[in-house]
Amino acid sequence: MKKTLHTSTLALLFTAASAFTLVGCATGGGAPVDDATLKERVESYLKNDSEFDTHPIKVRVQNGVVTLTGIVLTRTELQKAEQDARMVGGVKDVVNNITLNDIMKLQQ
């Protein structure tokens, strides 16, 4: 009887711990980050990425949603900027309004 009670108690505790973990993941697991802090973090992340040295990306944040604007030379750079922004903790979504510079295509 004690063994069954002990096993049931452990199962109940495990289930409760799992539920708390899932709730924490669903809510982001911590205090929300304000927009100004997110903007600084995304700008810093992009600034430290050598791909964006010659053509800066403008960052705007509203309610945790990051909007990127600017002009890049390659599709890889366009995608990399979005990936960089998504790597920052607290970012809810990224709107990528970066333009691909078509001048390079015309010169080829």
Helix fraction bin: 40-55%
Structural class: alpha+beta
Shape: elongated
Low-confidence stretches: 10-28
The CATH topology of the largest domain corresponds to Histidine-containing Protein, Chain: A
Report the top-level CATH class of the largest domain: Alpha Beta
CATH architecture descriptor text of the largest domain: 2-Layer Sandwich
- The helix/strand series, from N terminus to C terminus, equals HHEEHEH
Q: How many β-strand stretches?
A: 3
As laid out across the biggest beta sheet, the strand order is 1-2-3
Mean pLDDT: 76
Provide the gyration radius in Å.
Answer: 22 Å
Our measurement of the CA-to-CA distance between the termini, rounded to an integer number of angstroms, reads 81 Å
Give the strand content. Answer: 15-25%
What would you note in describing this structure?
- This protein folds into two domains: 1-30; 35-107, Histidine-containing Protein, Chain: A (2-Layer Sandwich), CATH 3.30.1340.30.
- It has four helices and three strands.
- The chain has helices at residues 2-26, 35-47, 75-86, 103-107; strands at residues 58-62, 65-72, 93-100.
- It has a three-stranded mixed β-sheet.
- Strand 2 (65-72), helix 3 (75-86) and strand 3 form a beta-alpha-beta unit.
- Mean pLDDT is 76; it is low at 10-28.
